[in-house]
Structures are given as C-alpha cells and as structure tokens.
Amino acid sequence: MIIIDLLKSDPWRMRALCAARTLDLPDWLIGAGFVRNLVWDYLHGYEKPTPLTDIDVAYFDPTDLNEGTEKEYEAKLKTIMNENWSITNQARMARINHFHREYTSTEDAISHWPETATAIGVRLNNNDNIELIAPYGTDDLMNLVLRMTPDLGDGKEYFLKRIEKKQWMTKWPKLKIV
Questions:
Q1: Residues 6 or more apart from 169 whose CB is under 8 A from it?
Q2: Which pLDDT score is estimated for 81?
Q3: Residue 148, beta-bridge partner list
Q4: Is pTM, for the whole model, over 0.70?
C-alpha cells in the first residue's frame, strides 16, 4: 500500500512512530496530519514536506482519564524526540467534545474527527510493521477529497471554516471539497 511505503521511506516519521511506541500506550496511533500531509504532499509532487503543527498521538485508556497523564506522556516523548507532541486519551475526549456517547476505542474516536481524510492513523507494532487504521478507508485521502465525517456534530459550517482556517486549499490546490 502506498501510504505504508511513504511512511517507511520517511525517516522522520519512522522515528516518531518508534518514539510513540516506547510509551506502550493502549490502542495508540499517530493520526491526522502526520499521515494526511505526507500523502497530500506526495500527490502534489512536493519535494519539501508541509510542516506539521504537532504530532497527534491518540490512545484509549478508560482507567485513567486524567489530562495530566497525557502531559506526562508528551514530556516523555519530547525527551526522545524534540517535537511538538499532542497526546490525547480518546476515552476522555467524548466528554470534552460533547459527543452523544462514549467512544469504545481509538478507531471509534477518530471516526468522529472532522474529515474522512484526517480520520486516519498509523502505529508501529512490536514486529516493526506499520498498521493503518482508517474507519472510512483511504479513498478520500488518496483522491484528495475533503469530506465531512458522517456525524460531525458541528456541521458543515464548522467543516468549511476549518478548511479555510488551516489554508488547505492554498497548501494543496488539487483538493476537492464534497
């Protein structure tokens, strides 16, 4: 699969996956722009990567909903790889996002992220294989399609404002909003 090959050929992303794996978090992944930007840059023929604002690590641990734990994990990762890490326990996020029910897993949680092309994540398993988690598949990501996830609670206006704020159409002009 092209996404896995792109990740394997990116030493920086592989270091990030190795670093995140050291935390041994339950049901973890690195998602959002970590994967999305890599693919969109490739599909636009960019040689220089589009910078990330952070590295989004999501995990699922209903036994520890303390936000302080997430900050401790971020500090640990920063000592391994000095980047801007954003770590969130998805078991806590349904409450914060005022979602109508609790999430059941990290995959369930990312299925509620705003765009189908962003609702994607990867992890490095103990056998050094990259696992891809994509509740909506990879077609929208690979076809440069921006589509709301089905039950985006904040709706179309939020979706369009988010695209504008992030300047995605400027950064990746081949994108199509549907």
A1: 163, 175, 177
A2: 98
A3: 115
A4: yes
